[in-house]
Amino acid sequence: MNIVFDVQFGALIVGIVAINLIIAYFGVSAFSNLKQQVKALEKINEAHEKQLDEAIKEEGDRYLYMALSQAPDEPHRYTLLKKCVDDHDHPIAAILLGTAYRYGVTHNDKRIIEADIEKAVAIYEKFCNPDAFGIFNWHIGFYYRNNLKEKSKKIADKGEREKIAFEYFEKSAEKEFPKAFNSLGMCYMGGHGTSFDPLKGHENYKRARDLGDVYGAITAGSIYEKYYDEEKSDEKKKAAFIDAVECYTTAKDQDSPEGYMRLAMIHEKNLNLISITPKEIASYYLKATHVKNKISAISYYRLGELLLRYGYLQDDKEIRNSLNLDKDDDPVESCYRNSNDIFLKLLKKKPKISEKPYYIEITEGFESIIGECENSALV
Q1: Quick one: 216 and 331 in the same domain?
Q2: What confidence tens digit (pLDDT) does each residue in 308-335 have?
Q3: pLDDT at residue 92 in the model
Q4: Which of 101, 127, 153 is the last residue of a domain?
Q5: To the nearest whole number, what is the mean pLDDT of the chain?
Q6: pLDDT above 70 as % of the chain
């Protein structure tokens, strides 16, 4: 099935293909980020209303357009997507439907699609051909590497599974799929399915970064940061520092909480190599606290340390407003408290009752945990 790329419909298809990249970042429900895409499609529809019917000559493209912009609700949307896949072998619909099967879909508190890895795999395998998008081969490699599919579970030897996964990642990388390079980097760094080769691992992480992959950018940045910490030559330290900042900035520009946190942390190591103020660093930590996980817990803690070190920031109105503080609230204590509360939930422990000032208890009891989590923040 060929996707129509005529003049009127070209902009529409380019917009839809962008979903290939959006869906690649996991932890997001299948359609939670498609509302903006649908709005873009609707604008195109307004601009080409008269020509649109003529432009969508392929029936599969027509059903995909209907699914993304005209379906009255989620059940109808997935019915149309399934028709695109089953009757018209539409690759973009397959990406979306496969992701829906991978995670399941809930609509109005009712489960309309149950999570079913085997169904997702069946769709991805159907579209694993030389002309397919790289995302299909990447998904199959992912399932082999993590032993999630029935076929992989029949292969007892872990090394054999990893070798198969590596081959799928290579096929995906041939199509310049960003996450494929990140996965290849992991394989080379750990010797999984291929030879142990840190240089190739780093090269693949950098390629993932260049293609906009958040985790590739963060991993490449952490490698450069390690060079910065270990190098003796001032010139080489400076080069590694700048490279690390560039990588973390790539992640930050995609609104990655870990990108913000890593960028703040490395700037704290050296405020002079790249001109930055403590307040700017504080703003990065604040950006990293939006999702309540270990990244936000670390960021709250380090922000508290930063405010303690630069006392004048404690009265900064923007920082206090971002922390939702009342007039008499202590921003340092608030940061430590937030960090502590998140860690307690993650560790599933009950808070201790102590007569010590709150921040003293936290700095004594959680410093080792903070250190461990900083070293394992990469997922």
Answers
A1: yes
A2: 999 999 999 999 999 999 989 999 999 9
A3: 82
A4: 127
A5: 77
A6: 71
Considering 127, 150, 169, which residue would you say is the last residue of a domain?
Answer: 127
123 is a domain residue:
yes
Please say if the pLDDT value at position 193 is more than 90.
yes
Residue span of the structural domain in which 318 resides: 207-375
Quote the pLDDT of residue 16. Answer: 45
Q: Is residue 244 part of a domain?
A: yes
Give the pLDDT of residue 78: 84
As a whole number, mean pLDDT of residues 44-48 equals 45
* Residue 198 backbone zone (phi > 0: left; psi -120 to 50: alpha; other: beta): alpha
- Catalogue the long-range contacts made by 76-85 (C-beta closer than 8 Å, 24 or more residues apart): 77/31, 78/105, 78/112, 78/113, 84/60, 85/123
